[in-house]
Amino acid sequence: MGGDSLDDQVIVLTGAAAGIGRSVTRAFVAEGARVVAVDVSTDVDSLATEYGDRVVPVVADVSRWEGNIAAAAAALDTWGRIDVFVGNAAITDSATALEEIDGDRLTGAFHEVFGVNVLAPLLGVRACLDALVASRGSVVLTGSFASTHAGGGGSLYTASKHAVHGLIRQLAYELAPDVRVNGVAPGVAPTRLKGTSALGQTTADSVLDGTQRALPLQEIAPVSAYDGIFTLLASRRYSAAMTGTLVTADSGLSVRGIAKPGGRVPAIGHEHTEVPAPRA
Ligand SMILES: NC(=O)c1ccc[n+]([C@@H]2O[C@H](COP(=O)([O-])OP(=O)(O)OC[C@H]3O[C@@H](n4cnc5c(N)ncnc54)[C@H](O)[C@@H]3O)[C@@H](O)[C@H]2O)c1
């Protein structure tokens, strides 16, 4: 990429310090956008060194109203407008099964996961709303395979990502015709999501042993694999007719087979055929 599909749009993006959000920030700047890059981690500050005055970092906790107000204010004070809000920050429950969670920790874990994964995008949209209506802008929320399927997380993460799907649909309805609202649903990306402190978790690898072979496409796509979808949904020019849509990019997980993950994947015990080389 490296075009002008986001020509000077002002974008507020949460969860920008690492993983998918950091990669999308780079892609947005390459497409001509100016980005307020928000994260609870101070690692977000290095984006200003990388991208100069095209990126304004904001260190804030987006599960709190004040953090979202600070992000919206940074965009309005610096550039006077907001065209897109991207709610991407999230934490995981490390795929912990309900029966493995002590009952007295469940409430705390629930509030942590839903605070970042569900409340934060609501707060972010609310904080940016007047500016988004004024610019006839759009919202992009990061969902997940877990927005539509079981087994992509524990019950807290899966319920939270299903809720993100609900937000996309409800907000697309409520904000039409002024603001488009869409989402991206990755399957597996090579990142380390933070866990909940209520369950004593630090971070968890998103890619587990055996994950690659379980995917119909047989490869873990890089974090940059989602850049184009976020860019498409943020672009007035290229997604003017899209709202209420969750775009799935799950390496085929939704069409996985029973005997083998993909029709041309060798059956277990017959792996004489090489797994295809990664796509360039
Ligand atoms: N990695 C995967 O396999 C995968 C799959 C499906 C969906 N997703 C989704 O992709 C999105 C990005 O996750 P990622 O995989 O790049 O993980 P990541 O941990 O690399 O990125 C998430 C970022 O959000 C930030 N964050 C967490 N809590 C925050 C808070 N309260 N306030 C501000 N920032 C906060 C983190 O510091 C981190 O920089 C998430 O919504 C995640 O649910 C990831």
Automatic annotation (TrEMBL):
Pfam family, one: adh_short
Keywords: Oxidoreductase
Keyword Oxidoreductase: yes
Molecular-function annotations in GO: oxidoreductase activity, acting on NAD(P)H, oxygen as acceptor
InterPro entries: NAD(P)-bd_dom_sf, Sc_DH/Rdtase_CS, SDR_fam
PANTHER family per UniProt: BENZIL REDUCTASE, CHAIN DEHYDROGENASE, PUTATIVE (AFU_ORTHOLOGUE AFUA_4G08710)-RELATED
UniProt similarity note: Belongs to the short-chain dehydrogenases/reductases (SDR) family.
Name listed for the protein in its UniProt record: 2,3-dihydroxy-2,3-dihydrophenylpropionate
Organism name: Rhodococcus rhodnii LMG 5362
